[in-house]
Amino acid sequence: MRVLAFEDSYDIEALLREGGVDLTSVELRQHWNTMDCFERIREFVPDVLLLDHYIPPVKGDEVLRGLLELVAAGQIDRPRLILGISSSSEANEGFEYAGADGSIVKFRLAEHEVWSR
Q: 106 pLDDT band (50/70/90 cuts)?
């Protein structure tokens, strides 16, 4: 499974390992900003996309909206699963409203069902 994370404050791999997730079959790439986010998504072709809300220079919900527009236009493939991973429950609700498949507070990311599939 290919996982792409846009998160600027916390090491996603460390959060998952500390949470007991077996990452042997996971190729995880993390970007600490959203510069060139669509090119990065196109190049990596993630199965799972993790988006933080408060990340520079483009907030995660804006990345999501832009991505979904590109998907609708046939210009980029949609990841199988898009998750909002803000530390703010309100921001995560905004991700779901904007079209994410789900959301989870980033500190509980290791508990998400995607890791047990």
A: very high
